[in-house]
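Friendly challenge for the regulars: who can give me the structure tokens for this chain first? No prize, just bragging rights.
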Amino acid sequence: MKRSLVAGIILKCVSAIPRELRRKISTGMFRLFYYLSPRQRFITIHNLRRAFPEKSTDEIIASAKGAYRTLGIVIADFFDIPSLTKENIGDLVEVEGLENLKKALEKNRGVLTFGAHFGNWELSVIAISLLLRPVVIIYRPLDSPILDNLVLWVRSCTGNVLIDKERAMRKMLRSLGKNEIVGVMMDQNMAWQEGVFVDFFGRPACTTTGLALLALHTDAPVVPGYIRRLENGKYRMVIKEEMAVIRTGDEKADILINTQNFTRFIEDAVRKYPDQWFWMHQRWKTKLWQVAKKHVEKGAANK
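First reply, four minutes later:
Bragging rights claimed.
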């Protein structure tokens, strides 16, 4: 896509700052935001307390601050993406398991790969596009046109194709039919009409059914992965083997069990490195009682 003049100026100015200094500035800003935004801080700490009831207050606060630091680093490193190439991506990202994606592509049904807002999710699809082939990414447009243009241009600068989530299903089906890789984020809260409730850290979390539906209807292989930040400041991307998709013939049950299995993969990664997940997000915002209330209202309206 075409980059706007303002987006180009922002990108050029920020990317001119050396990476380590850029990281210090960005993490410092998010450290300040941690203290100046009590509502987001409360959400973050509340989510961590509910997910890790066995941890002490000091451990919870350390993970909360770590999550803010992670977000600061993600944003700082975002401005390096346009300068990444197949030759230099290895200087920033180590990739483990790329052969699992290659093997899945050999089935010629397209590939569904999923992950979470974890480590540095922006770099994961960039690495795949540079080392293997571009990825079709589902995204939600940002409210700011300038920032939206900047983010879209950077995400697509290595060949990735972005699809608005509001009009995504048909385009994803076409992409899979062309044996392309489709990337889906599985860790965001959904409205009760758009998802199913599965267990995530011991709490019911309304989760997208899109990945399970696509896998069941297309037979496209599902390949999970995540990317985490290492102590030396670089990243390791781990691409796992194709996951088995459960098919019993009961579509409703199959959607639920497969969505649960996909979510469990994400939880396992977050449990290992809790400071690298996006705890500020209201992952459990949609409640089970909302579904029950709507059913009651619908039943009353039909009488």
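The CA atoms of residues 12 and 79 lie 9 Å apart. The chain has one domain: 89-302. Your move, everyone else.
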